[in-house]
Write a structure and sequence with these properties.
mainly alpha
Length: 145
């Protein structure tokens, strides 16, 4: 059950990653980077030679798909006991940490400093988002009363 939920969460995050990529062509190695999309769906879109309007509509549809997947995932997560939710969160956090450590090991010392700063900024944004979501849930609960 946990593996299925983790796979579902991973699949649900893919459209968000695609939407976050800047516009432009792939880097010299085909991997995502400044102005690059990488391979996959973005390359398919490039081959379609979409107009700006079509591209905008595709992005909107991908965003709707991402939200739909998130809602479906959340419905199943809400049915899990608290212990299973905690175990899943811990496993995801451990996997994220392992991946970050592996990426950091590939970097030179000056790159590691920039990488560490980026992680700190990302964690701050994540904490800010969690605070906002808690506030929003509290506000909605007050409105419902």
């Amino acid at each position: 059950m946990r593996k299925t939920l983790i796979a579902l969460l991973f699949a649900a995050s893919l459209p968000a990653i695609a939407l976050a990529m800047p516009e432009g062509g792939p880097c010299h190695d085909g991997m995502p980077g400044p102005g690059g999309h990488g391979k996959g769906a973005a390359m398919m879109f490039k081959d379609l030679d979409l107009t700006k309007e079509q591209h905008r509509k595709f992005r909107k549809l991908m965003g709707e798909q991402m939200k739909s997947r998130h809602d479906i995932t959340q419905r199943y997560l809400d049915k899990l006991p608290a212990a299973d939710k905690k175990a899943m969160e811990d496993e995801i956090a451990a996997a994220r940490k392992k991946n970050q450590d592996a990426m950091r090991a590939l970097l030179k010392p000056e790159q590691q400093k920039a990488f560490d700063e980026g992680l700190k900024e990302m964690e701050a944004r994540r904490a800010e988002r969690a605070e906002f979501e808690a506030w929003k849930a509290e506000r909605d609960a007050k409105k419902a009363q």
